[in-house]
Amino acid sequence: xxxxxxxxxxxxARLRTRFNNSRAGWLIGEGTWPLSLPLGTPTEKDVxxxxxxxxxxxxxxxxxxxxxxxxxxxDRSWPRLGxxxxxxxxxxxxxxxxxxxxxxxPRWRCAVxxxxxxxxxxxxxxxxxxxxxxxxxxxDYPDDEFERLFGLLxxxxxxxxxxxYLRQLPVLGLDTKWTRDRRGxxxxxxxxxxxxxxxxxxxEACGLVKPAxxxxxxxxxxxxxxxxxxxxxxxxxxxxxxxxSLKPAGAIIVENLETGVALPDMAGCVxxxxxxxxxxxxxxxxxxxxxxxxxxxxxxxxGFVILDRARTALPQLRSVLMDAxxxxxxxxxxxxxxxxxxxxxxxxxxxxxxxVYDGLYADTWGPRLRIEQERLPWDEAMAKxxxxxxxxxxx
Length: 395
Known about the structure:
Elements lengths: L7 H20 L7 E4 L5 H6 L1 H12 L7 E9 L3 E11 L2 H7 L3 H17 L7 H5 L1 H6 L2 H16 L17 H6 L1 H11 L8 H5 L7 E6 L2 H5 L6 E5 H5 L7 E5 L2 H6 L6 E5 L18 E5 L4 H13 L4 E2 L4 H6 L5 E2 L14 H11 L7 E2 L7 H12 L6
């Protein structure tokens, strides 16, 4: 069989690829039509040498369905074989034809109808790339979810600076979790509706009040607690934490809530916990500046990313139990990190910390190694923290 002859399944595969790659542009009016896909051109020599195979190819094309993409036939006149009528190309006169041929007609028509509705309400979306970028939303959202999205965009557009909290929005059927899970989509659309690159913060772009970042704090020193009426464990917005008149001698930053709650009393110390990748906010807390501070996190890639961000905020920060010696001594306690943090350049790690960070990606101690901080011997961990802070533990 001449290799250049394409069968219906070959053309369908090409149409499917073309649809998946081009549907975003087609939705906003891009594309050149008609689209012609040649099937290959058998020569007289091909037909003479492989008549049965060429006949099979022709018969396969006789089964091509009518109604979607058209099959074009051409007459060929050859010296020895005379006049022959052969299929030559599949012709698509528009996106509807391609979608129909690859069994994406209902999805395409749904996306087109919803895009038209959005464009009628906000003409800028008629040719804006954001519509195509969210083709799957337009094609696949259940009707009630699309109505919810449309209603939210309509309200935000009419109230660009409401100053309301997300939970307060008077939009029919709106669910706070639903909205939070779709912040990227909503931000993309509302930015396009307002005609520019705009603000990339969801709350600012929507004119909403951003929930205050909250910090969980434990005052580990009895004398410091006494100055606050005995209060020792609390969570409050960052602005209120910043305003506290605390004067600690030391600070312990831990990755996990359970670890922070379990910490014993330590003279002059406070603990801050469960900040995760938001640990950089500690740089805004004036009573932590220059204070002796340690960070203790999980031995995994996320733990070192958090350490790097914490040290950027608090340059005096030291880490504990995040070195190669700890890994090798407690390798039997290791588990697996479900998904490693995307590798990035961490400029604040010290050489011993960087060696472990690099080793985790290199699987030096095993695939996606992770040692959770709570699994390490507690007495050793407390001694290391006290040593780093130059404190005496209570007896």
